[in-house]
Amino acid sequence: MQDPPLRFHIRTYGCQMNERDSEALSCLLEREGYVPAASEDEADILLFNTCSVRDQAERKAVGKVGLMRKRKRAEPDLIVGVIGCMAENQGAALLERLPHVDLVVGTRQIHRLPAMIAGVLAGRRGVVRIGTGEIDFTRLAGHRRSGPSAYVAVMRGCNQFCSYCIVPHVRGREQSRPIDEVVEEVRGLVGQGAKEIVLLGQNITAYGIAEARRAGLYTPQASPFADLLRAVSAVPGVERVRFTSPHPGFMNKAFVEAVTSLPNVCEAFHIPLQSGSDRILRLMRRGYSAAEYRSVVAAIRARCPQAAFSTDVIVGFPTETAADFAATRELMAEIGFDMAYVFKYSPRPGTEAAAMGDDVPEPAKLERNKILLEDLEVRVRERNRRYVGKVCEVLAEGPSKRNPARWSGRSRTNKVCIFEPVRGLAVGDLVEVRVEWVTAHSLFGRILATCPG
Prior knowledge:
Blueprint: E1 7-12, H1 16-31, E2 35-36, E3 45-50, H2 55-66, H3 68-74, E4 79-84, H4 85-90, H5 93-97, E5 103-105, H6 113-121, E6 127-129, E7 149-153, E8 155-156, H7 167-171, E9 175-176, H8 179-191, E10 196-200, H9 209-214, H10 224-233, E11 240-244, H11 253-261, E12 268-270, H12 278-284, H13 290-303, E13 308-315, H14 322-335, E14 339-344, H15 362-385, E15 391-399, E16 407-411, E17 416-420, E18 430-438, E19 442-450
Parallel strand pairs: 1-2, 1-3, 3-4, 4-5, 5-6, 7-10, 10-11, 12-13, 13-14, 17-19
Antiparallel strand pairs: 8-9, 15-16, 15-18, 16-17, 18-19
Helix pairs in contact: 8-10, 10-11, 11-13, 14-15
């Protein structure tokens, strides 16, 4: 009698790219004959897709993997693997800390995961596969959709080397996919019912630039990413296009023209700021000034006044003074962000900033973090009040997690909208919602009509 197929479970930490990697790996493992486990407890293969951007993310993953030691003693055939950014960052050192781990697979080797699992089954445990090499995009093109939106990874890696950032070290150099390959993947997703395509890349506005430079075809006025946006937007059935994460240094005139003229590119732009102080921006090696950041936002708003902006900010970067922090606070107020991820600086070993010393006291970091979040709460509530009485196009995502009697979805400006469902409403429908009241986090209203599309 044939043995039943092995069951796998992937626990994911970190960014949208990790979520996309886990989805693609699930599809890859299924093609190789493995089956998803109904729960972590029922899995024969446990994989932890990890993050290294912040120390807290690594500690969280290490703690969870450490808890598997007891289960491994009870189930010696259980396969435990660590994959992703922390695997790339720590490599074989993870096996010393976590000797019950069977395999460690870095970000540029994850397409080899089935072969490594086969090796573990053959008795080769404690295997590490990290380091250089180009990712095999074709093996990671599978999707398992559960809603109207779909992630599409269009590039990997980053060439910026911001002084605080571990990403170039763990994700490698920029590698972009050909436009026709991305378009074919998008066509397949639309055929499966996707309405919204979210393009992913660590430095997505640099899409295609490294390849164009190698071919001697790049000019500063060009934007290969704008070309990609046009191609994806032209696929029949694509109602909405979003993307993350861009770098202000690559948001040139060609980019601005594309994102403000293509009708299915959403009017919501996540543009990492990190600091409003020019001195800190130089230490961070961000490659732009506060004035240049302002000009990018102004260029988009001039052509698209209804645009919403979100950002990333770091407080407590080495040598950050009260004046530096005040500059960040003032710029955030001036831009009027609709959302922001605010992080306390934590040094990442191997980065340039780690050698600068972590000299801002923890209480100061906590206070600055608190101030920015409180400012944001007040401003976003006020900005959201502008939606009251207006009609928003909302992509229905299904019952609200907090109140299943209501449904939720997102507006084109990426606002969470809560509304009463109507007869015949289906996930993926575009509906017109009149906003009746708001909080700092959501818009609440009722459906007026279903949008054509």
